[in-house]
Design a protein that fits this description.
This protein has 2 domains: about 10-210, Alpha-Beta Complex (2-enoyl-CoA Hydratase, Chain A, domain 1), CATH 3.90.226.10; about 210-260, Lyase 2-enoyl-coa Hydratase, Chain  A, domain 2 (Orthogonal Bundle), CATH 1.10.12. It has helices at about 35-50, 75-80, 85-105, 120-125, 155-160, 165-170, 180-185, 195-210, 210-225, 230-245, 250-260, and strands at about 10-15, 15-20, 55-60, 65, 110, 115, 130-135, 135-140, 175, 190. The longest helix has 20 residues, at about 85-105. The chain is α/β, with parallel strands linked by helices. It contains 11 helices and 10 strands.
């Protein structure tokens, strides 16, 4: 955690929905390496808490996340300058939260308000679902800084919008607006800025009411099998369905369906 900014990443909880807010509005919620590490810790915390059914990720002020904070110098500059092995260790540590977000066994929703740039853009796209405010802007700015795409964007973009369009976005490094993001498939919905958090909250609460084991199996299967063969897909489905069939949530869901009531799921 950053001692100078103890509230740079804020985790709140309500009705089964955990919300992580990036809270450095003066720098467009850009994150230092230390804050990226703290973000990973918060992802671990949500993953381990059975009462957190859904994660919402958003930013304070007029930005979602401006990516990495490159202004700090100090230890960051020293590690980058120490040679290829130190640089590789530095980048792997910084990118680890992206892997934790991808593996988080619960639905994740990005509420993109304002700018999502560089690693901040791919932090949003790494969520399962992206809602964008009308003023949201998405930018793969890496090439303009002499950098390769990171924070999972090399894997995410082609799967979301196709290889050619993904390369075009990364090659140009241009900023695109919310409507273009919607048409490309980077966002599920675009809503008025002042309605964004309300709409995301409604959606999140719907997911939080669903059986958590089933949600986890659906997410894990789709993520894992993007490039798998059909037979491997069926094998995973057989194992996942067996787990669901043996759960208390399955019995609750069946009773609720037969009685035409709403089930209360415990994740067991």
């Amino acid at each position: 955690m950053s001692n100078d900014e103890p509230n740079a990443i804020v985790l709140t909880r309500e009705e089964g929905v955990a919300t992580i807010t990036l809270n450095r509005p003066k720098v467009m919620n850009a994150l230092t390496p230390e804050l990226f590490s703290e973000l990973g810790e918060r992802f671990d915390e949500v993953a381990a808490n059975p009462e957190d059914r859904v994660l919402v990720l958003t930013g304070s002020g007029n930005a979602f996340c401006g990516g990495a904070d490159l202004s700090g110098g100090g230890d960051q500059a020293m590690r980058i300058g120490k040679g290829p092995i130190a640089r590789q260790q530095f980048t792997r540590e910084t990118l680890l939260p992206a892997l934790k977000l991808h593996r988080l066994p619960k639905p994740t929703i990005a509420a993109v308000n304002g700018v999502a740039a560089g690693g901040g853009c791919n932090l949003a796209l790494g969520c399962d679902v992206v809602f964008a405010g009308q003023s949201a802007r998405f930018a793969q700015v890496f090439v303009n800084r002499g950098l390769a795409v990171d924070y999972g964007g090399t894997w995410l973009l082609p799967r979301l919008i196709g290889l050619q369009k993904a390369k075009d976005l990364a090659f140009r490094g241009d900023v695109i607006g919310s409507q273009e993001a919607l048409s490309l498939g980077l966002a599920l919905e675009v809503v008025a800025d002042d309605e964004l958090i309300k709409r995301v909250g409604e959606y999140a609460r719907v997911l939080a009411s669903k059986p958590p084991i089933a949600l986890s199996m659906i997410k894990t299967g789709m993520n894992r099998l993007m490039n798998a063969g059909f037979e491997e897909g069926l094998e995973f489905e057989a194992d996942a369905q067996a787990r669901c069939l043996g759960s208390e949530d399955f019995r609750t869901a069946m009773i609720a369906w037969l009685k035409k009531t709403e089930g209360q799921y415990v994740g067991e």
